[in-house]
DNA sequence: GCATCATCTTA
DNA sequence: GTAAGATGATGCG
């Protein structure tokens, strides 16, 4: 049933492609002759990008009112493809308005499509000119659709020995996929190869036409067979292969599908014709014309004219950049894919760091940016702020480290394209404006009531930082989260993070580039870089003012965009305002509070470690027969495996010997024992005892970490300067470090941690009966697992069996493979696989969870946490198998780790609300644990309070914020109290 | 001076 | 097998 649509209305001329048969199906072509080492032939479905970007991107307009979002979106897709593949052959194909043979075949064909918006149709001529100016062949054929042109070219390209990338998001194109033809959606980043088609549609590419024929396509007006949907079509094709075969075996076919098939068999040929992409069009074009014009000068004038007419400023600037794809990118000839990847990385890097050469010129004088240098101007700003529902505030300081930063100036914005900068402490010698600066204390005391007014919303980029700075000047931007209706109206960094945590950078410059297509003035532009960088108070006030005003202006514009996005997404709105922003306020308090450390004790430890290290070094030199750097893996590897002739040396990817703990501990050699002990002590001394002493406040002896709230891909926090989330606990010596974390006189350390929270989440998400029961009965989960899998009672489980079960339980959370488990348990891969099979046999729903999660990541491109946070999985369709598999494991882990992160953030909010602040302070968060210092005589009561708040959080705080979670197992919190963190844990 | 690698610490 | 950050060594400019 894969007859090709062959119609006299089509411009078909068999003479142009004489060697090809008319029965041409790309998916079944012989591809043995195709050379994959050359760049692929790129076929772009221009119509797809036109529609997709028009509807998906925010409206953009030139000053003359010309809409440009589809032009820009499509252009970006083209540039991305050129940078990625460095193609020598490429074509962009568009539909025409003329009816096609499909319209003549069926009155319903695409009949339900509304007419094109004028704002879109206006953009088409520009786009055509742009494609041509980029030197890319443009194909439009009356009576044919872009799909048919692409089908024809794909067929021809493969016949000629090219491999092909079809750039589209149209699922119908899946019928063209084979092992040399893939689909790539440059808008979503999704790549679909043969396996991808199987994963997505449950059938092979060569069955795609039959699949569409059976199922129909309502958006195209193809009816399909009534009563046969996706699932039935899949089942039938998997069983019978083709429609022909299904019809021949109609008697065997079960269910209501059979009857419908018999009744509508007559419609099948028509539907098939409509669904089949033509592969033998007369494209009326010389094959040799489909090469990119790689002459950099050929069209540059036209390109310049277009960019300037469309007001594409960055593109215009990049035309003069040597890495613009239009600048002869293909002239270097065939690039191997490795080189292409490197080249692309370089281009991305250089594009990101494209600098504005002259700061003064960068100021856009349409914008009303003001420097406040006199009291009347300041009075008028005050009035404006007082009468605003919300405004942007941004602080400029002498340092990025909040602990040591001094306030240099403040900027404000109450609407887009207007901003104010109040310089307060600039001190550049020779800058005449410095003497005109207003008095800092006067200004701050006037601003204080406004900044502390909970009814005026504050907007900012990374407001936690500004809140820290202002608190140093006795201004409480935080308010308190219990009774503030409108404080901290928006943090644009957190908004971006809630919308997509997979983005690695949420800095203002990155957001401006991404959401506003604006290259902001970078800090390096105004303050220099490297050793020559000066602090902001040394920047001239007029330059500083532009920079600061732009920050406030951009933040306001981002606020508008995010507000719009969040208005359409109730859950993201809640995640931002009910979860992330309240968490940020609490983190701010925790960071400011800090935790007390016992400095003399740490110094004593340092000294002790140092003495032992010196002894170990000497012994190592004796064993080795010469001195070498024990801390150098390279020198150690050479010493051990080359000079001393120890066998069992493995190499790392860079070719040097691997000397990790896992390798060394298998080797029986005196030097190895020395090295392992040396490393352990050196680690503790360098990373912990010395480092903590260095960063502790010299007066209060408290350590203040910084929590990063918009960094991880799962929603977890991270901790830096110092990292207090990886303080040792496993070894006795390591725990000495923990003993240095103490509470002041009269107080104790209280630690409260969620027990097995991720496994409980696995029980919840999978609904697995056995797992749920174990938690509901309060069993030791690893023992229970071992007993279940081995068919024993819990009393019969041996320590080794429990250990293996624990490894498999952790493996589950990490998206386990037999390979990984085998490595962990030091057994063969087969044994590990047997173990996994036994496990899944007893926990079938857990297996299902893993399958379903993978499938959901493929289908939707994201997975979700318990509070509905969307965690995107961009690499899930990566063409590199290793990358793809890693993305699958991450997708399985993300809902578990991310939900645990959601829950502990809720817990922090819940606890903060009930904690008696005079008697207790929340100090640290370590993923599933909260650490407090509390009055010793109140510790028992407060402990109960905290435990209760944490355990009940899903039925209290979550519900109050509008999340309904019916959790399958109890949340268990274990608390303990001690004079130091080690005792409390 | 800066980036990358190998190693080791945590949940 | 997931998610992080800090350190010293090494190599490049």
From TrEMBL:
Residues 38-293 form the 5'-3' exonuclease domain. Its EC number is 2.7.7.7. Keywords: DNA damage, DNA repair, DNA replication, DNA-binding, DNA-directed DNA polymerase, Exonuclease, Hydrolase, Nuclease, Nucleotidyltransferase, Transferase. Belongs to the DNA polymerase type-A family. Signal peptide: none annotated. InterPro entries: 3'-5'_exonuclease_dom, 5-3_exonucl_a-hlix_arch_N, 5-3_exonuclease, 5-3_exonuclease_C_sf, DNA-dir_DNA_pol_A_CS, DNA-dir_DNA_pol_A_palm_dom, DNA/RNA_pol_sf, DNA_polI_H3TH. Residues 369-567 form the 3'-5' exonuclease domain. It holds the Pfam family 5_3_exonuc_N. One of its GO terms (biological process) is double-strand break repair. Transmembrane segments: none annotated. Single-chain monomer with multiple functions. PROSITE patterns: DNA_POLYMERASE_A. It comes from the Bacteria. In addition to polymerase activity, this DNA polymerase exhibits 3'-5' and 5'-3' exonuclease activity. GO terms for molecular function: 3'-5' exonuclease activity; 5'-3' exonuclease activity; DNA binding; DNA-directed DNA polymerase activity. It is an enzyme of class 2 (transferase). It catalyses: DNA(n) + a 2'-deoxyribonucleoside 5'-triphosphate = DNA(n+1) + diphosphate. This is DNA polymerase I. Residues 734-938 form the DNA-directed DNA polymerase family A palm domain.
